[in-house]
Amino acid sequence: MSTLRQLRNFWILWVTTIILACLSNAVAQQSYTVTDLGDLNNGNLGCAMGVNDRGWTEIMYGTQDPEQTGPLVNGRAGINVEGLKIELGTLGGKNSWTNYNGINERGEAVGLAETSVPDPNGEDVCEFGTHLTCRPFLWKNGHMRALPTLGGNNGQASGINKSGQIAGYAENGIVDSTCPPNTTNNRIDLPVLWEKGKAQPLPTVGSDPDGVAWGINNQGQAVGYSGTCIAANHAVLWENGTAIPLPDLGVPGASQGIAINDQGQIVGQVYSADGTTAYGALWQNQGQNYTITSLNTLPGDFYSFAEGINNQGQVVGSTQLENGDWSHAFIYQNSVMTDLNTLFPASSNLYATMANSINESGQISGMATVLSGPNAGKVHAFLATPVNQSIGTSVSEVARTHPKITLPANVGKQILRRSGLGQFGR
Questions:
Q1: For the residues 86-94, what does the mean pLDDT come to?
Q2: What's the pLDDT tens digit per position in 159-182?
Q3: Are residues 291 and 398 part of one domain?
Q4: Which terminal CB of the chain, N or C, has fewer other CB atoms within 10 Å?
């Protein structure tokens, strides 16, 4: 055999081996080991809303009444660092909570917390029924401090990037004329970018009085929505202080951006083209314009909501039943939506109903129902880590009957403010 033919055959064999290895890895990585992040202070609810590239998670922990039929009786923001649970505290009140994308690589965390001061206008922005002032916070070096508002009493922080820029919203103190009569939280909310402790208001679209910024990337681009007291009219990208409306499917409402990666890909939610439901959305920059892809939903579910995206373009999110109950956590990649429960081993004993964030290693944080054992029926936070191995029997094969997911009423209001379907309970 000639030297040239030997080299050619070696080259073909080598390339084939590489391709097969890549395909094998792609398939093998469609499985996860799952860490149950549990609860806090003997509570019965945990939901991991953010995960940084170290695998540290920011979690909203809570306690419902013993029968799990009433509202959440307390809530606390926390961080889980490789099994170490760190309670973030409050700003003098009883409760604290988190939104999406709220922890960065330095372990700085943001969210919302009650003070000890009753809201003078009777608002209840933290949604715990206490009617205490609710302030955006930054937790850094073991200490929580309040972030400034825009002249009003309340606000919430959501996302934080590597340099410490924070996205969220704050009241300006003015009564919102678009709120229906007897609305509890009836002040104008404006999107905000906090930098070095100062609050910079971001513009809304057209005549919209309200807006919220949910996510921010490491370039300082923020995403959220612009709208009214009760509707998210436009999903928005804020860049260099300018509000850029993102395309929808032809029906206004329920449009909002939740997360943005460093390539400028954005995920969130939009109304379906026929206006009957709401789907997860992926926006991608094509030259000077953004295009939108509807992610639809999983079989048997009615709504979907895209909540996290990493720099590889992997998207995670959640689906819901027609009655609004959380149903399945999903991952969307290579144009395919997959139920995470088909990728979790049965030994995890967790049925995933929400996936909220994904880091650069592909680790996913979210919320799941415990299937059996002493914690059966509780809602726990989880962290899923991709592995190159077969999982055997999956959770979806074991739990053929969908577990009932019932969240406390005030938690539902808080989450529905994020996933809203156009209507926000204020």
A1: 97
A2: 999 999 999 999 999 999 999 999
A3: yes
A4: N
Distance CA 73, CA 71 (A): 6
Q: Is 142 helix (H, G, I), strand (E, B) or coil?
A: coil
Torsion 134-136-139-145 (CA) sign: negative
Write the DSSP assignment of 189-200 as a string of letters.
EEEEEEETTEEE
Flag whether the pTM goes above 0.70: yes
Cα–Cα distances (Å) from 260 to 132, 162, 219, 314, in that order, read 32, 13, 10, 12
Residue type, 50: G
Would you say residue 424 lies in a domain?
no
Residues 137 and 22 in one domain: no
Residues 191 and 129 both lie in one domain: yes
346: helix, strand or coil:
helix
Judged against a pLDDT cut of 80, whether residue 79 lies above it is answered with yes
Position 307 in a domain: yes
Query: In terms of residue numbers, what domain contains 9?
Result: 1-30
* Planar angle of CA 368, 369, 375, nearest 5 degrees: 125
d(CA 271, CA 344): 30
DSSP 249: S
Cα 224 from chain centre = 12
At residue 22, the pLDDT reads 39
Q: Is residue 174 part of a domain?
A: yes
According to DSSP, the residues that pair with 81 across neighbouring strands are 84
**Tokens 């934080």, residue located:** 160
Integer Cα distance of 66 and 130 in angstroms: 20
DSSP-assigned states of every residue in 389-419: S---SBHHHH--SPPP----HHHHHHHHHHH
**Are residue 247 and residue 372 in the same domain, yes or no?**
yes
**The predicted structure's pLDDT at residue 70:** 62
For residues 239 and 338, membership in a common domain is answered with yes
- Which segment, 21-35, 199-213, 278-292, 403-417, is predicted with the most confidence on average? 199-213
Q: Is residue 425 in a domain?
A: no
Tokens of 167: 């996205």
What's the domain count of the chain?
2
